[in-house]
Amino acid sequence: MAASTSSASSAPPMPEHLRALAGEPELTAAWEQQVAARRAEAATITALLDYRQRTAAHYAQEPLVIRSEADRAAVRDAARILGISDRTATTILNATGDAKHLLPRTWRAFCEGLIDLSRVRKTVDAATTGDLPDDLLRQLDQAAAEQAQRRSLSEFHHWLTRYIASLDPESYARACEKETQSRFVRFEHQSHGMSYLQAYIPTLEAAAIEKRLKAAARGMDQPGAGQTNSEPASPGAHTAGSHTTDARSPDCCTTNHQAADPRSGDARTSDPRTLAQREADLFTAWLRDGRVYDAPIDAKIMILIPETTLTGDSDEPAMAADRSWMIPAHQARNLAANPEANHDWYHGRSRENPENAEHDLLSARYIGRYPPARLRDALIFRDGTCQADGCTISAERCDIDHQTPWEHGGETTASNLWALCRRHHRMKSHGFLHPPPQAKNTGEGSETGTGTDTSSSTDGGRSGGTDPGPKAAFHAVPDQHPQTVAYLRRRRYRSAGTTTTRTRQCSISDCAKVTRRSAESSQE
C-alpha cells in the first residue's frame, strides 16, 4: 500500500486541458491512480519484452525453426502472465516492441504514465501502415506523443488518420490502394441466437451504405413512404406487417408518437423498435432478399476537398466533414466528377477575394429561431463534431444549439450557434456545460487541413485543445495552405434502381469551372 501511495503521489500534474478539474480532490486522486496504473502497465510490458529479447539471445545460434519456436514459446508465456490469447499477446508485444525502437517519444510517454497501451498501439499502426521515411517518422512520433495525452481515444484515432494522410499524401494513397486488397466479410456467431457481421471495405462505400441505411431508417415514417415488399420484421416475429415510425433525433432511443400507415391512411401505434433496431432489420433485409422502398432516400456524404486537389494541381487528400476519415485525391476527384449524384458546393473563407462568393453563410444574421438548411450545412462543415470536450459524435447527428438561448435574446448567427449532441445539449440546458467565449467560435483564424491544432482550453466547450480537427471550411487560413472546398454528395435511391442526377453551383461563381476541370482530368 505504501508503494502504491508513493507512486500515485509522484504523478505529474493534470495536463492543461484537464486543469479545470484539479480542484476536485476525488478527480485528482483518480488522475494519480490512473498514472500509476499506466506506469504499472508499461513496467509489465517492458518486463515481457525483456524476457522475449533474452529468449531470442539465448537461441540466437540455433537454426531458424528453433528460433521461431522459441519465440512462440516466449510469447505464450507472456500470454499466460497477461491472461490473454497467444495471438493477442503477439500483437501487443510486436506493437510495443516497434514503439520502443521506432517511436522513442511515444514510448517515453507510455513509461511515464502519460498515455496508455491503446494509444501506443494506434500510433504504431499509423507509423507502420505506410512506408514513412525516418524524418517523417520522427515528426509523427513527436506530434503523436503530445496529441495522445490530451485527446480521447476516439479523437486521437481521428487525428492520426488526418495527420498520416497529410504528412505524406503520396505514401497515403499507395497505402490505401494496397489496403483494398485486404477487403473481406466475416461472420462470427455468438450465443443467444445472435451473430456479428463484419466487413472490411473501402471507406467511401462504407460511408455511402451508412448514410443510406440511416436515412432509410429515419424515413420509414414519412408520409407516402411505402415498400415494394413487406417491411422487415423484428427478429422473432411470425407475421409480416408494415410499420411506420415517428421522425426522431439521432440520439433518442425509442419512438413514442403515433404515425399513420401510408398505405391504409389509418393511424396506429408507433413502431416500438429503436433506431438501431430498425437499421439492423433494414440491413438484414437488404442483404437477404434486396427489399427496398418506393420512396426516395436522400442520403448525403459531406467531405472537405482542397481546391487544388479538384483541379489536379496537388494530391492533398480529402476529409470527411466530421474529420473521422480521409480519402486519397484520386478518389475525391472521381467522386466530384460522378454524374449520377447531386453536387452542392460550398467554399471556405480561404478564397483570396471573398466577394466572389455568392453568400457568406457564416456572417449573415437569420430571422427566426431555426437555422436554414444552408447554414446548418456550413455549421456542420465548420464544427465537424459535437463541440463538447472529448465528444466525437458527428455534427450531422447533432442539434444546432444557440450558445446564448434564443429566448434570452440569442441570435441565429454562426457565431452564436454550435453543434451539440443530444446528451451534451441536455447538459448545457441544465447548466452543466458552458459554451466558450463568443469570440472563439466566430470562424476567424482557424487552422487548415495540415494536421496542426489550436491551443488547448480548460472551459467546458471545445474552444481548442481537443477540437475535432482542421476547420478550413468557411475560415480564414494562411495563404500557404490550399483553399478548401466543402462538398456535399447527394444520391437519391429508388425502388427501381434509378437515380436523379443534377449538378448545381451553390455558393461561389467558379465552382462549376472547378467541377468541369475535375471531370476532364478524371476522363483523361
UniProtKB/TrEMBL annotation:
The keyword Nuclease applies. InterPro entries: DUF222, HNH, HNH_nuc. Residues 217-273, 429-524 are annotated as: Disordered. Residues 263-273 have a biased composition (Basic and acidic residues). Coiled coil: none annotated. Pfam families: DUF222, HNH. Residues 496-508 have a biased composition (Polar residues). Keywords: Endonuclease, Hydrolase, Nuclease. Belongs to the Rv1128c/1148c/1588c/1702c/1945/3466 family. This is HNH endonuclease. It comes from Nesterenkonia massiliensis.
